[in-house]
TrEMBL record:
<protein>
    <submittedName>
        <fullName>GntR family transcriptional regulator</fullName>
    </submittedName>
</protein>
<dbReference type="InterPro" id="IPR036390">
    <property type="entry name" value="WH_DNA-bd_sf"/>
</dbReference>
<dbReference type="InterPro" id="IPR011663">
    <property type="entry name" value="UTRA"/>
</dbReference>
<keyword id="KW-0238">DNA-binding</keyword>
<dbReference type="InterPro" id="IPR036388">
    <property type="entry name" value="WH-like_DNA-bd_sf"/>
</dbReference>
<dbReference type="Pfam" id="PF07702">
    <property type="entry name" value="UTRA"/>
</dbReference>
<dbReference type="InterPro" id="IPR028978">
    <property type="entry name" value="Chorismate_lyase_/UTRA_dom_sf"/>
</dbReference>
<dbReference type="GO" id="GO:0003677">
    <property type="term" value="F:DNA binding"/>
</dbReference>
<dbReference type="GO" id="GO:0003700">
    <property type="term" value="F:DNA-binding transcription factor activity"/>
</dbReference>
<dbReference type="GO" id="GO:0045892">
    <property type="term" value="P:negative regulation of DNA-templated transcription"/>
</dbReference>
<dbReference type="Pfam" id="PF00392">
    <property type="entry name" value="GntR"/>
</dbReference>
<dbReference type="InterPro" id="IPR050679">
    <property type="entry name" value="Bact_HTH_transcr_reg"/>
</dbReference>
<keyword id="KW-0804">Transcription</keyword>
<feature type="domain" description="HTH gntR-type">
    <location>
        <begin position="11"/>
        <end position="78"/>
    </location>
</feature>
<keyword id="KW-0805">Transcription regulation</keyword>
<dbReference type="InterPro" id="IPR000524">
    <property type="entry name" value="Tscrpt_reg_HTH_GntR"/>
</dbReference>
Length: 255
């Protein structure tokens, strides 16, 4: 970084500094690296700390920088694309070169809510397996999953080790290969419990996916996943050729 990069002129100084820090975050520093303190930036570029705060604040709002209370400001982790096809979190993380880990938070036979019972094709009040898990990659919490599983297809699921790839377990232990899913995506703010698990502030943006998966036409899984909004993004191919979806449709492959 060069002190002479900020000059008097029509372009405001906070905008000049923002552009310098953007290049630093995108091209020079790896994700998770600290940037210089407000004082260091103010001295290096001969600007006020108000100017520094304005520049840094804009990049925090854009998601390129992130603040950690009591620690400083860091370059944000690069967002990963959520895969819009049937693949386990474990396999997805390994494919990206990351080390996956899973913490089972709850596993029990319970009566599902009506929406889950309907999705799984179960009569009212029939118990199903509730599985809640926290998924990490390279130690960082990324996803909280809450899933209901059809006991007629995968009975006694709590008796198994559920800390690895669930899809592999279902295939190997039950001979059931999930081959189709329907997925709905929305955004919401993190509630206090989910925020604590994911290491974010309450109200932080999350991507939420509800996926109902089946095998040979039999519903097996009704799972909702809360993804950290600062770590994930969704990319879809858009197509105009599907008449039953209106003039525009999102084509992202099988969820």
């Amino acid at each position: 970084m060069n002190r002479s990069e900020i000059v008097d002129g029509p372009k405001p100084k906070h905008v000049q500094l923002r552009d310098i820090l953007r290049r630093l975050a995108e091209q020079e520093l790896p994700p998770g690296s600290p940037i210089p303190s407000e004082r260091d930036l103010a001295e290096r570029y001969r600007v006020s700390r108000i100017t520094v705060r304005a520049a840094v604040g804009q990049l925090v709002a854009e998601g390129l920088l992130t603040r950690a209370k009591g620690r400083g400001t860091f370059t944000a982790r690069r967002r990963m694309d959520v895969q819009l096809y049937l693949e386990s979190f474990t396999d997805d993380m390994r494919r990206r070169g990351l080390t996956p880990a899973t913490e089972v938070l709850r596993c029990a036979e319970e009566v599902p809510p009506p929406s889950a019972a309907t999705a799984l094709g179960l009569p009212p009040r029939e118990p199903a397996c509730l599985l809640v898990r926290l998924r990490r990659a390279d130690g960082a919490p990324l996803v909280v999953e809450r899933g209901w599983y059809n006991p007629r297809v995968v009975p006694d699921l709590p008796a198994h080790d559920l800390s690895g790839s669930l899809y592999t377990l279902i295939a190997d232990s039950y001979g059931v290969q999930l081959d189709h899913a329907r997925q709905t995506v929305w955004a919401e703010g993190a509630d206090q419990g989910t925020a604590r698990l994911l290491g974010v502030r309450p109200g932080s943006p999350l991507l939420v996916f509800r996926r109902v998966s089946s095998s040979a036409g039999r519903p097996v899984e009704d799972m909702t996943s809360w993804y950290r909004g600062d770590s994930y993004q969704v990319t879809m191919q858009l197509d105009r050729t599907t008449p039953d979806s209106g003039p525009y449709s999102a084509k992202g492959g099988t969820p």
